[in-house]
Amino acid sequence: MRRVIAVFALAASALLLAGCAPAPAATTDAAAPDYCARMVTNSGGLEDRSFNQSSWEGLQQAATTYSIDANAIVSTSANDLAPNVTEAVATGCQFILTVGYELADATLAEATKSPDTHFAIVDEFVDAPNVKPIVFDTAQASFLAGYLAAGVSTTGIVATFGGGNQPPVTLFMDGFADGVARYNSTHDTSVAVLGWDKATQDGLFTGDFEDVNKGKAYAQSLIDQGADVIMPVAGQVGEGAAAAAVEATGVAIIWVDNDGYESLPAEFKPVLLTSVLKNTQAAVVAIVGDDVAGTFAPAPYVGTLANGGVGLASFHDFVDRVPSELAGEVDALRASIIDGTLTVTSPSTPG
To answer: In the chain, at which end, N or C, are there fewer CB atoms within 10 A of the end residue's CB?
Structure first.
C-alpha cells in the first residue's frame, strides 16, 4: 500500500536541518500558483532520517518559498517504485523529484516518455536532457569524520558499515578510511578501520536500509571487536547502531546525510559524535527555484565542501571531549580540501 503526503504552499512549514551550509541561492521568490511538484521516495519511506526526509524537507521549503503545490508519494517496497513515478508524472506536474539509485531506471523511463516534464534525482546519475542529478561528494566530509574518529578513539579501532555496496554508500566509507589513514600518517599512530577496505572496495553491508535490528547486531559485533567510533551508512538501519552504542560504554556514532542530533530520538544524543551532512534541502529549493524561473538545466548539481553541499555537523554533546588541537586540525583539513591543496579521491567520486 502507498501513502500520499500532501503539502500546500500556504500551510507548509519550512523544515531545514540545523548545521547545514547553504547551497547556491534560489533564483526567484515569485509565486507560481499553477506550478506543482511531486516527489517519490525510495523504499526507505519518508521519515527515514536520511535522504528521503531531507529531500522532502527541501521540497516543503520550496513550496513555501515559491507558493507552489507539492506532494510526496511514499514507496513502501520495491514494487511501488516504478508505479509511483508513473503516478507522479500522471499528475501533470512540471517537476518530479525522485530519491535514490533504486528509482534511476523508472526515472529515466518516465523522463524519456515525458520530455516536457522536468525531473531531478537525488544520489544518482541519470543521463537525459530533462533530468538533473543531485549528487554529493560526501568523501570530502567523511574524510574529516574519519580523521576526527581516529583522534577521539581510545581503543585505536574505529568502524563503518553500509546498507549496500553501491557508490553513494561506499563514497562515505572511502572518505572515512582515508581520513583515518591521514590521522595515522600525521600522528604516527595505527588506528584500525573495521568494516571497509578501500583497496578492495569490499566490506560490511547489511543488505538493506530499513532493518534496525540488523544495524544493532552489526554494530554490536564491531563493538565486541573493540570499535569505539562507528559510522553506519545505512539509513534507518543506523538507528540500530546508535541503540547498540547507548547500551555500550564509551562508544560514539557518526551519523550521515543529516544532523542525527536533530533528527534522531533524543535517547541517542549522548552517543552522537558528529554527522556527515548532505545539504539536500537547499539544493532542492534552488533547483525548484530555477525550474519555476524557467532556467532548469540538466547539468548535475555536485555538493562539495566548497559550495556548502556537504559538511560536518557540530560536535554537540561531545564538544568538550574533542581536544581543541584535534578540532583545529579538522578545520585546517577542511580548508585544505576547499582550496584544493588536499584532494580526497574515491572510485565513486561524482563528476
So the answer is: N
The DSSP element (H or E) to which 202 belongs, if any, is strand 202-203
Backbone angles phi, psi at 257, to 5 degrees: 80, -55
**Domain annotation covers residue 208:** yes
Residues 213 and 65 in one domain: no
- Tracing cell 518516465 back to the chain, one arrives at 110
The predicted model scores a pTM of 0.86
CATH of the domain at 187: 3.40.50.2300
| Owning domain of residue 335 | 138-279+310-339
* Same-domain pairing of 145 and 219: yes
200 and 332 part of one domain = yes
Examine the pLDDT at 20 and tell me if it is beyond 60. no
Answer yes or no: do 55 and 99 share one domain: yes
pLDDT single digits (tens) 194-227: 999 999 999 999 998 889 999 999 999 999 999 9
Query: CA separation (Å) from 177 to 206, 258, 278, 297?
Result: 19, 20, 19, 35
**Of 113, 94, 83, nearest in space to 36 by CA:** 94
For 162-200, how does the pLDDT look when each residue is reduced to its tens digit (9 = 90+)? Answer: 999 999 999 999 999 999 999 999 999 999 999 999 999
Q: CA 131, CA 97: separation in Å to the nearest integer?
A: 9
344 in a structural domain: no
Residue 137's contacts (CB-CB under 8 Å, 6 or more residues apart) are: 171, 302, 303, 304, 305, 309, 310, 344, 349, 350, 351
Contacts of 233 (CB under 8 A, 6+ apart): 160, 161, 162, 163, 169, 172, 173, 256
Residue 132 sits in the same domain as residue 8: yes
Domain count, the chain: 2
Nearest alpha-carbon partner for 136 in 339, 313, 305: 305
Q: Please report which residue ranges of the chain form alpha helices under DSSP H.
A: 51-66, 81-90, 104-113, 138-152, 167-187, 212-224, 237-247, 260-263, 280-292, 324-339
3-state secondary structure of 74: strand
113-145: buried (b, 16+ CB within 10 Å) or exposed (e) per residue? ebeebbbbbbbbebebebbbbbbbbbbbbbbbb
Pull the grid cell for residue 103: 528509482
* Residue 96 identity (one-letter amino acid): I
Residue 348 maps to a domain: no
